[in-house]
Amino acid sequence: MSTLQEKLTQLQQKGSQDIKAASDLKQLNDIRVKLLGKKGPITEVLRGMRDLTKEERPAVGSFANKVRDALAEVVDQKKAELEQAKIEQQLATETIDVTLPGDQPKIGAHHVISQVIEQLEDTFLGMGFKVVYGYEVEEEKYNFEMLNMPKDHPARDMQDTFYITKDVLMRTHMSPDEARELEKHDFSQGPLKMVSPGRVYRRDTDDATHSHQFFQMEGQYIGKNVTMADLKGTLEFAIRQIFGEEREIRFRPSYFPFTEPSVEVDISCFKCNGKGCDVCKHTGWIEVLGAGMTHPNVLKAAGVDPEIYGGFAFGLGIDRFAMLKYGIDDIRNFYQNDVRFLTQFEKRG
Ligand code: DAH
């Protein structure tokens, strides 16, 4: 036996002993690296083969490989042994008390405003309207100009505005999406029917019924031969979906720059059924939204010919809908994120 082979035999004996003596997985790994790694003694022996004759090399080489494989095998066995021991130890020491009460995860609630938005979206989708989402930071052009509210128009004062620059602002209503969609729509493909829900901003002092930010939904239907009867039928259907089948609606004349004629829409009181109560301030009717027949100037500004196309638009306050529907008397509740408030409206199951 050559001296190299002797050296290898010794390495194998010593190595096996060390491996078997390892007390944990970390130590075992250190031993493995030291013994079998690139800087280890076996690699060194293999390097020393340079000095052997051609005839000696194959025998020593294959012997070295055998030693390495044998040691690797011992490492694997030891590893399995240590892992098993670890599991057994865990089983012996860690017990689970299945009778202890569990941790109840805190589940958030689907916001009541989101619920009303979804109900409205479903209702209008069902009538063939599409849902679009515009921009909270909007151009003055879409928020006012294209809606028949040129600069210095008194109606701009009705909506006290947060300006970002002279031409850019926080949208004060959802009507800019009307102008945007009108401008984009290809009427050769059919009428435009859309709703757009979203957050709007106004410089207002917050109190029980005012908030500097709230939610609206805009809707419009522009095509050929769209009439005020279509407006009434559409709103009546939507309102019955939200406030119950028995609801009646009525129109009262009003003014908005973007519609002519314009109307204010009331629903018959759902609490007293029209008899008069505190919710309807003893009138039997509750004002819920503004609407009208789209002004020809709005169509023209978007490049739509008012001689051929026309239709209606409406804008409703989502917060107001939610307050009425659920009997909430302070709009600030929606924005304070108090879970005790928010979880009351969550449908469970
Ligand atoms: N943009 C109006 C507002 O914020 C709401 C509105 C009223 C929208 C009448 C309309 C409409 O499209 O026809 O007060």
UniProtKB/TrEMBL annotation:
- Protein name as it appears in the record: Phenylalanine--tRNA ligase alpha subunit
Q: Name one Pfam family in it.
A: Phe_tRNA-synt_N
Q: Does the keyword Membrane apply?
A: no
Q: Which PROSITE patterns match?
A: AA_TRNA_LIGASE_II (PS50862)
Q: InterPro entries of this UniProt entry?
A: aa-tRNA-synth_II, aa-tRNA-synth_II/BPL/LPL, Phe-tRNA-synth_IIc_asu, Phe-tRNA_ligase_II_N, Phe_tRNA_ligase_alpha1_bac, Phenylalanyl-tRNA_Synthase, tRNA-bd_arm
| Compartments where found | Cytoplasm
* GO MF entries: ATP binding; catalytic activity, acting on a protein; magnesium ion binding; phenylalanine-tRNA ligase activity; transferase activity; tRNA binding
Gene Ontology CC terms, in alphabetical order: cytoplasm
CC cofactor note:
Binds 2 magnesium ions per tetramer.
Q: Which CDD domains match?
A: PheRS_alpha_core
Q: Which gene encodes it?
A: pheS
